[in-house]
Each structure stands twice: as structure tokens, then as C-alpha cells.
Specification:
nine-stranded mixed β-sheet; 311 residues; alpha/beta; four-stranded mixed β-sheet; 34% helix
Length: 311
């Protein structure tokens, strides 16, 4: 490893409240559940924790409420050696939550309440300029307001910090925001929505990449396709990276861990080709376990990834 990467993450911080039951209730019905768990989540926090476990120095920038969940989540970040100095506690606000019911067979139903995540402002991001300026790579997603995302990308551009935009959850974005990113990491659905605003009629994956290249000709594209691996357009050169063969248990946080892996390896000095291969290994290990942050691997586990899991 060349050196420790410095990663700044601007994004969401949630508490996932997960219950299991043998069926979903119909309106007006009360049913008995089986298990309950509180699991730290949010795409921003997931990526920060993943990067920290890969031995990066990580700063997290976001918002929580002044409630028990917010206190617990800040403590969780700090327990992972993450600098939470720029995680703002919003008076009177509730921390973001995801209410998740999982029924037998794995089907789930999710209600997300953004809470304090919706209160991340450009001013808040600018208060954390020092953390972004000092980073090797900035990671941003779309679970916070777009003005805050744009502010983070503009600060990175101003200081020559490389920026990865993970455009999830999927939405159409202004071209001027897209062009601020050095790398974009959509999945196939997100690539379609970015390119055309819809999934229907978006064309093949190659056509989606063509459309995104026209929107952001200077950005590198890393399009994740699950078991079909990753399709890239790096400085105009296209390549395919097969997925690693593993026993899939749960795909939660696979995209977050891939993004973190790419950011960390890129921040350490590797080129994007090597960073994609490393991120793919991190993502593959993640899907072999249940949960979000509970499934994120340590650097030593990635380095021990055995030959049987090669593409």
C-alpha cells in the first residue's frame, strides 16, 4: 500500500429500524413480528465506514437530529476512527430513519424519513471546506439536498480534489452539476435516469454510456451491473470488469462498499483501472454477509481474498 488515503464523505446518516415478520400487514391490521434491530445506515455513513475499514483517514460531513439516534450514530462513526467534527447536530430535528420490514423470503418494504439529512445546506458544507480541501478524494451521493451536493463538488474542484459522484438514489441531475464530478458511479438504472430521465426506452447500456459521455465528456464512468460486473469509460477508453464469483447472502451496501473501495485505492495512488478491481473485491465480500455496515469488510479481509473468488 503506497500510503493512507484521505477521504471526505458528504452525505446521509440514518438509523435503520428493521423488523422481520412472516407477512406484511394489510391496512388496519396488527401482526406479531419476530425480530427487531437498530442498524446504522445511510449511504454517506455506509461509504465513510467502508473507507475507514479499508484503512483510510475519513472525515464525515452531514447532519443528525438532537435525539438518541443522532447521539448513537455519531458515537458509531467515532468508534470506526472517523472524524465526525463536521457532523452537525440540528436542534429540534429528528435523525434520518429507514423503517424496514422484511418478510419470509427476503422481500422488504421500506419507508425512509430523511429528517436531518434534508437540512444539510451549502453553508454547512462550506464550514467543512478544510476537510474537503485536505482530502485525496471526495465522495458524495444524493440522499441530501442537491445544493449541498453541488457545494461539495465545487469546493473540491476549486482545490483540485478528485470527486466521485455516486448518483443514488436515482434522479435526473442538472448537467452543470454532473460536470463537476471527476468520476460518476451509477448502476444501470441510475445511468438510464441520468441519461434520459427514464428507464423505459433508455436503450442499451452502451447507449446510456454514450449519452452520459455527451453530458459529462471529461468525467470517467464506472457503471455497476451486479453479477455482470462493471462497465467503464475511463478517459474515453471502454472496458469491462467481470464480477467476482461469491455466494450472495445480501446485496445491501454493495454499491456503497464499491464506491469506498474505488475512492480509497485511487486516493492511495493507484490508477482507476486498479481502483475498480479493488472496489469490485470489496463489493464482492460485502454481499457474502447480511446487513449494511455489519457486512463491510476490513482491509485485511480484502487482501486475503482467495483465488477461488477471481472473475
Amino acid at each position: 500500500m503506497e500510503r493512507r488515503a484521505k477521504i471526505a464523505v458528504v452525505g446521509s446518516i440514518n438509523m435503520d429500524l428493521v423488523v422481520t415478520a412472516d407477512k406484511f400487514p394489510v391496512p388496519g391490521e396488527t401482526i406479531m413480528g419476530e425480530t427487531f434491530a437498530m442498524i446504522p445506515g445511510g449511504k454517506g455513513a455506509n461509504q465513510a465506514v467502508a473507507a475507514a475499514r479499508l484503512n483510510a483517514d475519513v472525515s464525515m460531513i452531514g447532519c443528525v437530529g438532537d435525539d438518541l439516534f443522532g447521539e448513537k450514530l455519531i458515537g458509531q462513526l467515532r468508534s470506526e476512527r472517523i472524524d465526525a467534527s463536521f457532523v452537525k447536530i440540528e436542534p429540534g430535528a429528528t435523525t434520518g430513519v429507514a423503517l424496514i420490514q422484511v418478510q419470509e423470503g427476503g422481500e422488504n418494504s421500506i419507508v425512509v424519513v430523511p429528517g436531518a439529512n434534508a437540512l444539510v445546506t451549502p453553508e454547512h458544507v462550506r464550514e467543512a471546506e478544510a476537510a474537503i480541501r485536505g482530502a485525496d478524494v471526495l465522495l458524495v451521493q444524493l440522499e441530501i439536498p442537491l445544493p449541498a451536493v453541488e457545494a461539495a463538488l465545487r469546493i473540491a474542484r476549486e482545490h483540485g480534489v478528485r470527486a466521485i459522484l455516486n448518483p443514488a438514489p436515482a434522479r435526473k441531475l442538472p448537467p452543470e452539476l454532473i460536470r463537476l464530478a471527476d468520476v460518476m458511479t451509477p448502476n444501470e438504472t441510475e445511468a438510464a435516469i441520468l441519461a434520459t430521465g427514464t428507464v423505459e426506452g433508455a436503450g442499451s447500456l452502451e447507449e446510456r454510456i454514450d449519452a452520459l459521455r455527451r453530458l459529462a465528456p471529461d468525467a470517467s464512468l464506472l457503471v455497476t451491473a451486479g453479477e455482470n460486473g462493471v462497465r467503464t469509460a475511463i478517459f474515453g477508453e471502454r472496458a469491462s470488469y467481470p464480477a467476482y464469483r461469491v455466494d450472495v447472502v445480501d446485496t445491501t451496501a454493495a454499491g456503497d462498499s464499491f464506491n469506498a473501495g474505488v475512492a480509497v485505492r485511487w486516493g492511495e495512488g493507484a490508477d482507476l483501472d486498479e481502483a475498480v478491481r479493488f472496489g469490485s473485491k470489496v463489493g464482492a465480500l460485502t454481499v457474502t454477509r447480511f446487513g449494511a455496515q455489519s457486512s463491510l469488510p476490513a482491509r485485511e479481509e480484502v487482501e486475503r481474498f482467495e483465488a477461488k473468488t477471481r472473475p
